[in-house]
Amino acid sequence: MRGALVILHRWLGLGVxxxxxxxxxxxxxxxxxxxxxxxxxxxxxxxxxxxxxxxPLELAAQAERADPRLQVSFLPLxxxxxxxxLLGVEPRPDPRTGKAAELDFNQLALxxxxxxxxxxxxxxxxxxxxxxxxxxxxRLHYSLTLPLVSGVDVGVLLMGVVGMAWxxxxxxxxxxxxxxxxxxxxxFAFRWREGGYRLxxxxxxxxxxxxxxxxxxxxxxxVSMNLEREVVRPLVxxxxxxxxxxxxxxxxxxxxxPATPGVSREQVLTLAAATAKARGWTAPAGGIFYSPLxxxxxxxxxxxxxxxxxxxxxxxxxxxxxxxxxxxxALTPGKGSAGDIFLQAQFPLHSGRILGLPGRxxxxxxxxxxxxxxxxxxxxxxxxxxxxxxxxxEPRGIGAPAAAE
Length: 405
Fold this sequence. Notes:
Number of strands: 8
Number of helices: 14
Helix content: 40-55%
Low-confidence stretches: 398-405
Order of helices and strands: HHHHEEEEHHHHHHHEEEEHHH
Structural class: alpha+beta
Oligomer: single chain
């Protein structure tokens, strides 16, 4: 039994080592993506003057009038002092053909006082330039930036499968890390003074044991985020009812056939404010998005500076049909069935944001630990492989020379 599990661990580990090494290093960095991105790109994030900011809804409408090719897909509803207004944008369909207009950027920074463009970029584009570095690393972390195939994000699916293999390997690794219960302390020890291979082995085995639960959490949450619709949501629904989610029940449109809303942002915000008041929510509407692929509006409720949802399960959101404005679901952190809360917790757990700043620091350290475990695992395998090869050759040197193979 143990021998079979050791072999399973070896090949599962080797199969995912490269992916996890990359994911660990990028994960350690993107825990601070907003801060590093703003530091690298002040022209995108900082306002050029201290003039009074205009209403974001007005600025968004101005941007759409200035460039008829685009429609604003995400709009912050407040502008922090000294900051630009960073919009998410998507192509608008050509009125004659219905196909998406040509647009080579999906983020647009505006001067909050004048509405003039300060800069633009395509978020997630494979590039190491200052403007694209952090978005590229973020997308590399969860999808390897692989291209879509027939509208399917194969990179997301692949990393989801890697997460499944990692979760299984975590369980196998814990079992084989304790060959003898009487000597369990060895599985927690590090032979720092001996160094060399023994320390490498301890870093891999004992290091993994110390943080095993955290590693398993990262593995499971990575599956939940990458394969939510395909695997996790159907499985969770078998044991717990789930609230309506417009992104799981609606079929997305073709990428080159985006929708345009039938109701305005102002109308949706009026509906959202009334609904939030009825639910007893006290935070103001902090941001609004429109998804041209699902024809859905979303309104998030949070105070200025809390848009990233640090602490707890994140911010509440209300969803509305983009054609009619009818309610299309809600995300209320900490509310709903056990299955709802389980799904709500996946990103906050994976990113560490559930614990705020300490959680983000922990996830950065864990990212480096994942990379170390992957590297030491490959090093251990390579050394054992050389040892086995040497043993196969040594007997030939005792007698007559071996015949040429």
